[in-house]
Amino acid sequence: MPKIIPPHIEKLTPYVPGRLIEEVEAELGLTGLIKLASNENSLGPSPLALAALARALPRIHRYSDADSRLLKAALSRKTGCDPAQILCGNGSSEFILLLAHILTGPGERALMSSPSFTLYAKNAQAAGAEVVEVPLTPDYGHDLAALLVRAAEAGDRTRLVFLDNPLNPTGAFLSPEDLTDFYRRLPPAAVLVLDEAYIDFSRRPRADWRPLLDEADSRLVVLRTFSKAYGLAGLRAAYALMPAPLAAALNKARQPFNMSGLAQAGALAALEDEDFLRRTLEMTWTSLDYFQAEFTRLGLGPRPTEANFLMADLGGRSADEFFQTLLCRGVIARSLTSFGLPTCLRVNAGLPAESRALVSALEEVLAAR
After folding, report:
1. In whole angstroms, what is the distance from residue 39 CA to residue 231 CA?
2. CATH fold label, 47-271
3. Model confidence, pTM
4. Which end of the chain has the least Cβ crowding within 10 Å, N or C?
5. Which pLDDT band holds residue 18 (cuts at 50, 70, 90)?
6. For the domain 7-45+275-368, what is the CATH superfamily, name and number?
């Protein structure tokens, strides 16, 4: 049989998602598992979004609005960006894939930190680009100086630079000033893709990117999602802000009807649910502050975070072992071995009872060691 799969595709490894509650319960014969592994919103979805989904269900025999016009208009009001600068899509992963395949290819370079969101490297590799992953700083943050060095050495071959801020999986945060300076120093052909999936949870000052997006030669793309703060991970709803010419190019290359009618209806309603967003932030910050104090008491090395999750350095102990022992106690956390951090554990914010259950399980695990 002739060889039909290119070598750079054969080298890809599948994305490793968090374990499903139903899958683990069936495997272990348990019920009532607590999942704090996938950075989901423990409050669930916005009630306004649920109501909008119910109203939209009778129309699922119709194709969705191919241009997401109502959602774009609402996002324009929220962000201040022109609708021509906004794309709506099937999760941020759709934009990452499109950008990788449109702006890179063989002989061109895509840069990202390591570890960070694994789909940056995966999609760039699938496009045939040279993937350069730059290690984090000793305090688990983006090494901007090293990224600039690797960008400059390839010159115009550097086409994409991915930065997630806050950074997944560590929760580290870059200031608007540092990001702007980094952007200004990139090679002129490089596009900065700033993934702000967790920006709603930050308690630090955040940037208004409109001035950079409005520049005539802008090379900035900002990714946002409804999966985290708005509680719609299962709908796959996201949007991207970018210069209008780049948005027009991606709009031509994307799949038609890329965002379902249900996703558009749910996202549009969630965007207006300010009360739900306020309650989400209150729950998240309360849980993370509790984790910081309790993990410190237990000697587990929690890292500062501006996301809805916390990373703990286990001091050389195996994160996979912690994951398995917590699982047997009814709590799903996330071992970061797949991110290249085999002695680190990540947990997302939970409801009060969930947060207490995690800490109690950790106490049992540590007492048994």
Report:
1. 10
2. Aspartate Aminotransferase; domain 2 (3.40.640)
3. 0.93
4. N
5. low
6. Aspartate Aminotransferase, domain 1 (3.90.1150.10)
